[in-house]
Amino acid sequence: MSGASAEGATGVRRPASFAPLRDDVADVLARINYATMTTVDRKGRPRSRLLIAVWELDGDRPVGWLATFRTPVKVAHLAHNPHATFSYWSPRQDVVSFDTVAEWVEDPEVKRRVWELYRTGSPAGVGYDPQPFWPAGPDGPGFHVLRLDPYRVQVLRGRELAAGVAPRIWRGEDRA
pTM higher than 0.85 for the full model? Predict the structure, then answer.
């Protein structure tokens, strides 16, 4: 039943595996590229910023990576609550949202691999050349990486919205 889908009382389609969402997610991300990342502070107030995360979508569950500066606000928010949402929206009303648990990664091999994912695009069309932002490269002191483990992914294409079709929501291991 890996491709089977269940429908909740709200009509939301819940595929049992991430596979049925993979192509739509890759297509939407490639056209949008920028995500809104939202974290929360100690008082529960949201804080959003625009950035570009890369995603590995080929396995049983997606894994995201964020090359980023280790700003005091981001560090404080994630230390208090490691949950972050990455939302993508296009004028065509195509929407993808990743609810994730974010974790700082210090492993130099992983950081070099993430650097290459940004340079080559993952998925195709998503990423950028990180060199101008981190001239010292992936081994430099300013290059930091967050691993993003989604526990929920929601996909809704504009054509589905117009037809009254409910969003598709994949749920992985619940780390909420």
Answer: yes
